[in-house]
Design goal:
This protein is mostly helical. The protein contains six helices and no strands. The chain has one domain. Helix content is 74%, strand content 0%.
Length: 107
């Protein structure tokens, strides 16, 4: 899946300190990247994120994901399953917001 490869590459950049966000606990995000890499492509969460990525860029432009969830991961716990679920939830919320904006201003 192209999305997963792109996301893993972006996470690696962040862990190395060259990515778009500074991480509080780079080792925790490295563990999350390993967790993602081991998931089967049939994982429903990855399939969802891949599908959204094919039609919009809300995941890559989500303030919540790139300014809150990923930078702070590992400061309280290292629950990779919970982080992935939170990323999906944030993506759903961002996609709904995007659709609502499109409905309000169709031009």
């Amino acid at each position: 899946m192209a999305f997963t490869a792109d996301f893993l590459a972006r996470l690696k950049e962040c862990v190395l300190g060259t990515g778009p966000v500074e991480l509080a606990v780079p080792d925790a995000v490295a563990e999350f990247a390993e967790f993602l890499a081991q998931l089967p492509e049939t994982d429903r969460r990855l399939r969802y994120l891949n599908t959204v990525d094919e039609v919009s860029s809300v995941f890559w432009n989500s303030e919540e994901i790139w300014s809150e969830l990923l930078p702070d991961f590992g400061t309280e716990d290292r629950d990779c399953e919970a982080l992935l679920d939170s990323l999906v939830d944030a993506t759903i919320a961002a996609e709904v917001d995007s659709i609502e904006l499109g409905l309000q201003d169709p031009g």
